[in-house]
Amino acid sequence: MRDSALSLGASRPTSRDVRQNANLLGDLLIEAIGYLEGEEAAGLVAKARKAAAHETDEGEAPGLDHLFEGLSNDQAVFLARAFASHSLLANIGEDVAGRRRHAEADARPGDERARTLVDAVAVLKAQGKTDAELAKVFAAMNVVPVLTAHPTEVRRRSMVDRETEISRLMTLRRHHLPADLEADIRERLFREIALMWRTRLYRPERITVKDEIRNALSIVRTSILPAMVDLYEEWSGKIGSHGHIAPLLKMGSWLGGDRDGHPGVNGDTLKLALSSQSRVILDWYAGEVRKLWSNLAVSTAYTPVSDELLALASQAKDPSVHRLDEPYRLALELIFDRLTAVSQKLTGQWVAYATSRTDVEPYAHPDAFVADLQIIIESLEANGGERLVGASLRTLVAVARACGFHLMSLDLRQNADVHERTIHELYQRSGSGVRYLDLDEEARSKLLIEELSHQRPLVSPFTAYGEETAKELATMEAAAQAVRDYGHACIGAYIISKSATLSDILEPLVLLKQVGLVWGGAAPRSSLKIAPLFETIEDLENGPRVLRQWLELPISRTILGDRPVQEIMLGYSDSNKDGGYVASRRGVARGASALAFEADRMGVGIQLFHGRGGSVGRGGGPAAEAVLAQPAGTVQGRIRMTEQGEMIARRFGDQPTARRNLDGLAAAVVQSSQRPVNRPDPKVESAMTALAQSSFEGYRALVYDDPAFEDFFWSATPIGEIVGLNIGSRPASRTASRKIEDLRAIPWVFSWSQARFMLPGWYGFASGVERAGLSTGQLQDLAGDFDFFASLLSNMELALAQSHMGIAARYVALSPDQTNAQRIFETIKREHDKAAEIALAIRGGSSLLDNQPELAESVALAGHSVDPLNHLQLELLARRRGGEQAEDVRLAIQLTVAGIAAGLRNTG
Asked: Which of 150, 498, 529, 610 is the catalytic position?
């Protein structure tokens, strides 16, 4: 039985902090329900919790099932709310305790991995790196976490705010608080939980792009930006040259720019995203300038100032006679007014603290803003006031260099198929007679290269285009205007989904030429970086060939510029859905090495953009560890990584956590970049190649070759209900079909996690080992000698531990075709059990995660919260599939979906 100690494998109690936090918040929830809904309602929740505690390891909970079977639809909604709320509160309790453990772990000696950039630099200095060499390292660095939307995100901003306040109050608690203070905090926690109970947990309507932008910026404003400020202040003081540090850490976003399969993303959302981001960073700049103005009441009666400062101050329009001898204040007042003018231009609003409209000239570019700040710094330094500069002024400059007026660089993404259709229509409407879609690859590439060799446009303002083409052109025109308004750095890259050929790279260049972001001619140039995204196993294998074809073109060098760096995005999600966990990870790693080799051979740097998700099957796991597991020679001081959906709140939800993760990521990039590139061991390569190929074959045999599997997936997981619910802002599939090939990778992973299979995180490994004929000894050698394989095993073990085959079997029972359903499930369960057996044999463990007790406790705590929601979801799915179409059943299912997602946290 599952008792309150939350066993996993061998019985192991949770840590005291986690248990105490979870118990306190759970008790307060019951208390709030009793206060607001009455003791009978609280009694029903308590009864359900007691029944849930008697679930067996096989997923049997007859008392709970009996209770749920007798629920009215209203009661089902009520209990779904209660369990979903409990799941959220359990997460908060664990996170608060986890932050304490992280703080303790960060201070432990003997860990070879540098957890901060300052520590990583200390290691390099100990190895003999000079300050000049380190400055070059920093100048070449480009570390960019990229925030993306989540197609299964359902949380509301108001709920995020409640969670943040509960978390804050929990961190205030200490073991030996005075009784009155302890009681006050408990009462405030009760009030927050009661308010949470009376707040709609999740959206009944589909989330919009505007909602996604607003939700993400809430976290950026409250935690990510303050964390970046802290880090730049520390770095400037401890590792910067003369207090200056290169803008090595930046933030990126897809919110409002990722239109691949998203009908709601267009030129208007691009404008909205950038203006919303601009407001956040300009308000911060204004606040910092205002604080500097208050501090720098330095009079020329006591110290000289530079001529440049006097010239800057003379442009201010301050009528006060009291500041005639305070040029620093006058200069800062001018800077503030010009920031206000920038805000008026870009957002239509004043900056924070502005009291009136300004008629001064706005800064044309962030560099001009930085130049004015530099004048103040240099004047202070030149006139004996170097120590008066302080960290705040240098930090303001560092952040301004990293964030500009746009805060986060916004990527544009579109599918190559859309580009093809758009190019085809442009040629058709131009009267050229060219039927682009009928051309083969060689003819397409030749035509596109010719189109880039001159300035003539394909687009005519007097021609009417189809809806799709008109939308594409309007979005690109909006991007061109954004570059004019914010500068080139506001657009991170143009990502080409489904890239497979050279023409896929050339097509967006021709389209961007129509709006002035690419200039044609003998030496064409581009304002934007073009980044092909290689997603499937086949595309990852062919990627190096496509890159070579591109770099062999003379036009590639002028388009890439004087210091050529080619960005390439690697897809973890679709490659996983295409070929399974092992083949996907191997394909990404091998593709990264081959791409880096081709780029180096052609004299071009490479920047890899890792399209990771939150789950193991989609490349999830700690970002720093993922960087350190990258093949040597592929990081090169530059990396971009997606941070998606629910993982944004988990990794950046509060300032200390955001700071730790950003600092650890920067440190990992430095460490990984310094690793020597050695020739791979032929035995390792041979074993991994055999394992990946065999795993691919085993995975494909089930998912794509078994004719009954598609129906099994749609009936044994809640994918059908997920598609029908208002979850996320984009469609779950690229087409209207039920084909797995057309389903987006995130709903694919999400569905398996809801039903507790976690199949994308482990399926194919065991059959791959058996097909490849690898012994335990060979696998142990691989794990000991090959960081990539050790990381793969560690993440797979987590996915295996998170799965629950007993509960999964209950979902299989929903399938109408029980003959095939049971046959397929037995195949899946056999693979699961064998994968766990092999993983434990490799490291000599006795139960999953017994070498990582805190992670084991975390998984167990999640199961304790989520298991009852699974049982309730099963009851509700049976009702709905049995013909019950009442709105409250739909709502209850949505609540269980969201509650399970919240509890597991890495669902997609």
From this structure: 150
Cα–Cα nearest to 480, from 410, 414, 527, 531: 527
DSSP class of residue 727 equals: -
CA-CA distance, 482 to 595, in Å (whole number)? 31
Residue 10: predicted pLDDT: 30
pLDDT digits (tens, 9 = 90+) for 660-681: 999 999 999 999 998 888 877 8
Residue 857 has pLDDT above 60, yes or no: yes
State the Cα–Cα distance between residues 269 and 890, nearest whole angstrom: 30
Torsions phi, psi of 18, nearest 5? Answer: -65, -45
Separation between Cα atoms, residue 28 and residue 196, nearest integer Å: 12
Nearest Cα to Cα of residue 680 among 634, 619, 617, 625: 634
Residues in a beta bridge with 410? 253, 491
Inter-residue contact 640 to 602 (CB < 8 Å): no
Tokens 């167990």, located at residue: 860
How far CA 322 is from CA of 298, 299, 794, 823, 837, in Å, comes to 12, 10, 66, 86, 79
The better pLDDT of the pair 526, 19 is held by 526
Q: Residue 434: which residues within 8 A CB-CB, separation 6 or more?
A: 427, 428, 447
Q: CA nearest 244: which of 397, 119, 141, 126?
A: 397
Q: How many residues does the chain have?
A: 908
Percentage of residues of the chain with pLDDT beyond 70: 92
Amino acid (1-letter code) at residue 283: D
Q: Which ranges in 755-886 belong to alpha helices (H)?
A: 765-772, 776-785, 787-802, 805-812, 818-843, 853-881
Which residue ranges make up each domain of the chain? 278-403, 409-614, 681-851
Fold of 278-403: de novo design (two linked rop proteins) (1.20.1440)
Find the helix or strand (DSSP H, E) in which 550 lies: helix 537-551
What is the Cα gyration radius of the chain? Answer: 29
HEC assignment per residue over 229-241: HHHHHHHHHHCCE
Determine whether 454 is an active site residue: no
Burial group, residue 728, by CB count within 10 angstroms (0-12, 13-18, 19+): buried
Contact 606, 636 (CB under 8 A): yes
Instruction: Residue 767: name the closest of 844, 834, 825, 839 by CA.
Output: 834
To the query of whether residue 150 is one of the catalytic residues in this protein, the response is yes
Taking the C-alpha atoms of residue 11 and residue 73, their distance in angstroms, rounded to an integer, is 36
- Residue of 262, 498, 577, 832 marked active site: 577
Task: For residue 110, name the pLDDT band (cuts at 50, 70, 90).
Answer: very low
Report the chain's terminal Cα–Cα distance, integer Å: 29
Tens of pLDDT, residue by residue over 197-235, are 998 877 666 778 998 898 899 899 999 999 999 999 999
CB contact at 8 A, 728 and 152: yes
Q: How far apart are CA 442 and CA 449, in angstroms?
A: 11
The CB-side HSE value for 719 (13 A sphere, CA atoms) comes to: 27
Residues pairing with 43 in the sheet: none
Which candidate, 637, 651, 547, places its Cα nearest to that of 599? 547
